[in-house]
Amino acid sequence: MKKVLVLEDESSIRSFIVINLRRAGYEVIEAESGEEALEKLQQHKDVRVALLDIMLPGIDGFEVCRRIRATNTKIGIIMLTARSQEMDKVTGLMTGADDYVTKPFSPAELTARVDALMRRSGGAAETADEELRQEPFLLNTRNRTLEKNGQRIKLTQMEYSIMRMFMENPGKALSREEILDLVWGRDYFGELKIVDVNIRRLRLKIEDNPTNPTYITTVWGYGYKWGF
Ligand code: CA
Q1: pTM, rounded to two decimals
Q2: Cys bridge to 175: 40, 41, 58, 223, which one at CB 3.0-4.6 A?
Q3: What residues have a C-beta under 5 A from ligand 1, the ion?
Q4: Ligand 1: distance of its center to the CA of 67 in Å?
Q5: C-alpha neighbours within 13 Å on the C-beta side of residue 25
Q6: Cα(79) to centroid of ligand 1, in Å?
Q7: What is the CA(56)–ligand 1 centre distance, in A?
């Protein structure tokens, strides 16, 4: 069963999400506070995607996300944001989240986002025991791990997928639309901005100097390229 955790303090919104995810075939665990969400994740270690509201009475959604990520890089995390929240601030604070959905959202949009993340959260078995080596990086597609100079770099599932896409396309300029299609899937409803958010974070983890990236280079007005 594909398990999803929904953290939302407003019961009407929570029910709306839960009903629609159940209708889409997910098993849903509910939490109305950050503390409860963390507790339930301890009990249900097989939750593969968590939807986290940001504005909560106790610890906020960002803090919940941070605490989850401290021990779990595998789970997919989607932040639920309000229209009134300034997006630049939100994306800047999205230190461990894979995606965000802006309220109000349609059931179709929500399930498409969860589906996309579910596909990437270790659901599908990799086809072969394979290593992609491009010095100083080594990507293991079986364990879904990345090493740089022999040191493991902790990646979220989205970051791993982006890294794999780049390493499979060395030297090729990829448009942001192409990256969105390749990593998030064609049925993804989200904005292109999510590509930049994830790449900015990936650079912090893999570049020698993130302000002057040399591995993931920007192709101005187009997208990104792996290598020179
Ligand atoms: Ca709330």
Answers
A1: 0.62
A2: 223
A3: 9, 53, 55
A4: 18
A5: 6
A6: 11
A7: 5
